[in-house]
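Lay summary

Proteins are chains of building blocks that fold into shapes. Our project writes down both the chain and a compact code for its shape. Here are two examples, one after the other.
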Amino acid sequence: MFSLEKSVGFALGAVVLSAAIALPASAKVEGDTIVLGSAISLTGKYSTNGIHAQNGYELAVKRINEMGGVKVGGKAYKLKVVYYDDESTPARGAQLAERLIKQDGVQFMLGPYSSGLTKAIAPVTEKYKVPMVEAEGASRSLFTQGYKYLFAVLSTSEQYLASSIDLAAEIAKKNGKDPSDVKIAMAFENDPFSLDVRAGVVEDAKKYGMKIVIDDKLPRDLSDMSATLTKTRALKPDLLVVSGHSKGAATAARQIAEMKIDTPMIAMTHCEAAKIVDQFGASTNDYLCPTQWAETLSYKGDYFGTAAEYDALFKQTFDGYKNVPYQAAQASAAVLVWKDAFERANTFDVPKVRDALAATDMKTFYGGIRFSEAGNNIAKPMVLRQIQDGIYNVVAPSKWASHEVNHPRKAP
């Protein structure tokens, strides 16, 4: 079993080892090994999540290699990933991506951690026409640049709270009401991620003809949303949606309890990151919180089985994890996409492999993966977990739910 400390040591060792590898400029394969490359955050502010992602990459590589490898042209190949530490710095990430491609001859890339690093690296891989499958950059702006060599397995940011709109419509219909009667209050931080989230909510609300009765920006310091909540109490919306990263979630949870806001549905991002259950206890019951993946989902694939089986294997492989982070799960899914594309292309010719990636349509433990023309995954929804007696249970979309949704929410 790998401990977290050992995995960090492994990661740094891989960086040192990779510096010594001298592949020919045109290399795609070393003997019987397919080489993937990744600049990833092993130090710096993103290092924790970067290591989660690297562990996900390594678990998938190990699993694929143990199960016969990648079959191309009648021959079985193993996978290997060459890592460099981008130090959580976009400029460094771009520099290292260029090094992987130009000096190390890597023709097939895995992504870094975070949208910011992915935004820095994508122009480099595009310039050299090197396909990159990324798992950690959710910003939808990545997929409005016309990139042809960027593919992402995760759901993009505008989808984070869109599922709450679908759920509100579903509940309205169940109660004999028209979804167009649903009233929505919104409060979002003025940052690219939250504004992407807002755009998804607005688009889906428009689809159902729902009325947005409050559309507020959270104050810059994210320390007080009482103005929004005062309006919420007066206008009585059916759904309140909030996105302000961890600090915004904590402020919302605290003030909703203090002001005894009784909105029937409340959905917000970053519930877990803000540790709102630990901080505010039972007052957070029935909040809806989006997630990319959960071990209780009924997703299933060939290499890891179910989401629950992946969860168990990851915990057996890497010590120190009480919960498997979604960053690790989606990183493993990205490696599975490469295996599938190589085998369908049945060649290492880069343009043909790129076209195989574009044609991906597969089921995995992480969910469905099918790319739009822009490169984002359009086969996997965000799911909503509801805090029920302090536990996060998947309640939407209903197809993947492990528990019934509690509605209306019981006000504190």
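And here is the second example, written the same way.
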Amino acid sequence: MIRRHIEDAIRRALADTPVVLLNGARQTGKTTIAQAVARKSGAQFFTFDDAATLALAAGDPAGFVGNLPAPVVLDEIQKVPDLFPAIKLAVDSNRKPGRFLLTGSANVMTLPRLSESLAGRMDVIPLFPFSAGERAGRREGFVKRLFAGEIAKSKPAFSGGDLAARLSLGGYPEAVQRKAADRRSAWFASYISTILQRDVRDLARVDGLHALPNLLKLLAARASSLLNLADVGRDATLPHTTLTRYLTLLETVFLVHRLPAWSPNLGKRLVKAPKLHLVDTGLACHLIGVDAKRLREDRSLLGRMLETFVVGELRKQLSWTEPQTALCHLRTAAGAEVDVIMERADGAVAAVEVKASSTVTPADFAAMRVLRDQLGKRFRAGAVLWLGDRIVPFGDRLWLVPLPALWAG
């Protein structure tokens, strides 16, 4: 069984917070982790995938919560939104840490009524598909080293393997376990159908969402690009209000996410549009109908999938190392861009650029140099991830770094 790095963060949260919500996409391992926590702590486990339990909770939320033992694990909490006010009342009467561990397959923080119910009482911990380090049995140290200015000490003493195969496989536990490409494709098809036909409709409370599958494919084809709602709406033949609502729904069930533009006071006109990424490259490849062979042949497509992969890996690492760190991108009106900007609460900044090539020139560091010079000491380090096998200094606090350093221990 692959150990999840987020488990330590869950234990720390349960030690000082009454309610902990493990939030993430379906089939990422939430229930498995929650059951393991229940076994170790002696907590009772209830899942709302069980129709009888769901009916009891929905019929009398206050009575259901009032009769629960402590501690307790409630799985798939988004199915019974009326439980949140009842949990709030229970916590207000007894704020003992670790009373409730919740799991959810919809982002409750995008649902105001639910998130407001437990504001200040709940710690939300995201769970993503397997990281590259988890699959390799290593706890990644990339982000920590980059902020510390010690990225040159990385020792990725192992090959990145077949990059195209890694990207097309993705990180969902069930997909990773399936060796045959056709069986993985069948799993992805079933997975998408389940989320769009059941989870999204449950959240939206309407049936008229027939355009969602096509919209999701269009978004997958635009992965790593600036999000232009007018262009997407035209191609999807959806009005702006409908498109905005559908995009929010797809984010709520963790299929896509927007990487916001970084907005420092640099005295320059910046492009404010977010970049669009899918939560998993295996899912993205399935949606646009490409396999590892196609990725190897299409360098442009490989580059876009690689950028989505790196953004996803950094999101995963930040979730268990530095959850208060903002993840953004930078692009100026003149076209200079940095794929990833990470900013800590103390103002420290680190930057990452992604190159699907074994050839890099000084021009690839140009935007980072400008950023470094304007931020001064706030800029800790910048790394261009490439497909070469050496770590090469490219000036003050700038490094050329092999891709496998991203998941080195």
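What can we say about the second shape? The chain has a mean pLDDT of 90.
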